[in-house]
Write a structure and sequence with these properties.
520 residues; Alkaline Phosphatase, subunit A; 47% helix; two-stranded antiparallel sheet; 22 helices; alpha/beta; eight-stranded mixed sheet
Length: 520
């Protein structure tokens, strides 16, 4: 059955209009009916000027439109924006180089396939319109230039390319201080550092998010709560948040400096000492545990390359998890924290200082992966409410710390509870972006007087803060680009603003080169 030209015309024009409307809806976070409204607005001039109408002269040459590649690149950008809420080119580059195997985002993989089919259909419709109406043959050439000039994906690439040329800039490098410990307490404390996947302190706003954060608020009353910890560029994904808090620097990808750019990285930041390196040199036993695979995004390479004796993820813990009780990423958090508790008991009984780092995943966007124990406690999960998953994270962590404390395992231990980064796009996205956002950072321990410290800071300030909270002395209260938030020294954010730091990262690469010295 062959469709008439007029039927093909209106199908092509309507579909193009819906695609334009969908792109606008995603980029500006507009209501679901936006695509239909903009499609109608698109069809008005289409009818008025007879775009693709049978009486219009067809293009003399059946050449391919110039706009196909620019449109395809816009589809890539819209997919990234829809998936993560904000284009983070650094994250894309790093994950491509560090490895994306064992990725648990099944929903985004399915979405990627749907996006691909939708993009191909739009390109077919555009090709038909350009060939059916000779006027569009000229217009779409001009349109191609605008599509290339205003694509944020290409704009980000151009900025990174410019930084490779500007190799004399060293503003960040001049302010970097290699992490060092110059004094230590007589009895070094243990360290338990819990990264809460995407569980930002923004959720503490009860007017927007109800009781989702209440267990972490209650936990914070026992220790030091930091307010005002903002997110620098290149710290907005899990590995980047870990690097920032442990190394005192943003995770600026190796990029063009990597000799084998299309091969996986062999090391992650080999040119810098991080928290693991410093503690290892002082006899600490170091352990990392997470429910997801440590192969994803170079986690195993980072931890093993920076002093950790034990690095455990889904593959290593699978035989200890209940049968048929896994999510797309790996172990549920109640399973993980149960295994973590057993591991900490063994570390405690070894009578050697230790540092334990754990990573939850219950609040992973877009909807989360709440544990069965949370469902038993909170009631049924509707499958989409990220606030349910955030609540689950706080409840599990609060109970986990309470169990350790009740058994005397925290007597000489600093506990750090922090988000790894601000959440990417999730089911509460409109509420999240409706106001200021900040990361979670809580210190718990017998020497941590309960209080709130409000500072303009970022995750690079966590490293010197944790070291000083453990009783270690660091030169001038500084480590990496960070400043201890327990000191009165101003942070870089306080001195120069978050925007200035982000601008410097885009315009220079001296520090980036130093961090990746020795990478293959």
């Amino acid at each position: 059955m062959t469709l008439s030209r007029n039927t093909r015309r209106w199908f092509a024009l309507t579909y193009i209009g819906l695609c334009i409307g969908y792109a606008v809806m995603v980029m500006w976070v507009l209501p679901w009916w936006t695509p239909a409204l903009l499609a109608l607005a698109w069809l008005v001039p289409a009818h008025r000027f007879g775009w693709g109408a049978p009486e219009q002269r067809a293009a003399r040459r059946r050449a391919w439109p110039w706009s196909l590649l620019p449109l395809a690149l816009w589809w890539v950008y819209i997919y990234l924006d829809d998936s993560f809420g904000k284009l983070d080119l650094g994250a894309v580059i790093f994950h491509l180089q560090a490895g994306i195997e064992e990725n648990g985002s099944t929903d985004r993989q399915i979405a990627g396939a749907i996006y691909t089919l939708a993009a191909i259909l739009m390109l077919v419709c555009v090709t038909w319109l350009v060939r059916a109406d000779h006027r569009w043959r000229l217009w779409e050439r001009v349109l191609s230039l605008f599509l290339l000039a205003f694509n944020p994906l290409l704009f980000g690439l151009s900025l990174r390319g410019a930084s490779v040329i500007d190799d004399n800039a060293s503003w960040l490098a001049d302010r970097y201080r290699p992490p060092q410990i110059v004094s230590a307490p007589k009895q070094p404390p243990n360290l338990i550092y819990l990264y809460l996947e995407s569980t930002e302190r923004t959720y503490a706003d009860t007017q927007r998010f109800g009781n989702a954060y209440e267990d972490l608020t209650e936990l914070g009353r026992r220790g030091v709560v930091f307010q005002g910890v903002q997110q620098l560029d290149n710290t907005g994904w899990t590995m980047a948040g870990m690097v920032a808090s442990q190394c005192g620097v943003p995770l600026m990808p190796a990029g063009l400096m990597h000799d084998n750019q299309f091969e996986p990285l062999s090391d992650v930041l080999p040119g810098v000492d991080c928290l693991g390196d410093l503690l290892k040199a002082r006899g600490y036993a170091l352990t990392f545990m997470g429910g997801a695979s440590t192969k994803f995004a170079g986690k195993a390479k980072f931890y093993r390359g920076h002093g950790f004796d034990t690095v455990l993820g889904k593959d290593e813990l699978l035989d200890q998890a209940p049968a048929d009780y896994l999510n797309d990423w790996g172990l549920y958090d109640d399973t993980l924290l149960g295994l973590a508790e057993a591991r900490i008991r063994r570390l405690h009984d070894a009578h050697r200082p230790y540092a334990f780092f754990g990573l939850t995943l219950a609040a992973h966007p877009p909807f989360g992966h709440p544990s069965q124990s949370c469902r038993d406690n909170q009631g049924p999960f509707d499958g989409t409410d990220i606030l349910y998953s955030v609540k689950c994270t706080g409840w599990l962590v609060k109970n986990f710390i309470a169990r350790l404390d009740a058994d005397g395992l925290l007597d000489n231990t600093l506990v750090v509870v922090s988000s790894d980064h601000l959440s990417m796009k999730n089911s509460a996205w409109e509420q999240l972006i409706a106001g200021p956002r900040e990361d979670t950072l809580i210190l718990l321990g017998k020497h941590q007087r309960p209080r709130i410290i409000e500072r303009q800071a970022s995750m690079v300030d966590v490293l010197p803060t944790v070291l000083e909270a453990m009783g270690f002395g660091v030169p001038d209260h500084r480590a990496g680009l960070g400043v201890s938030l327990l000191s009165s020294r101003p942070t870089l954010v306080e001195r120069y603003s978050l925007e200035e730091l982000n601008r410097r990262m885009r315009s220079e690469n001296r520090l980036q080169e130093e961090l990746w010295t020795g990478v293959n």
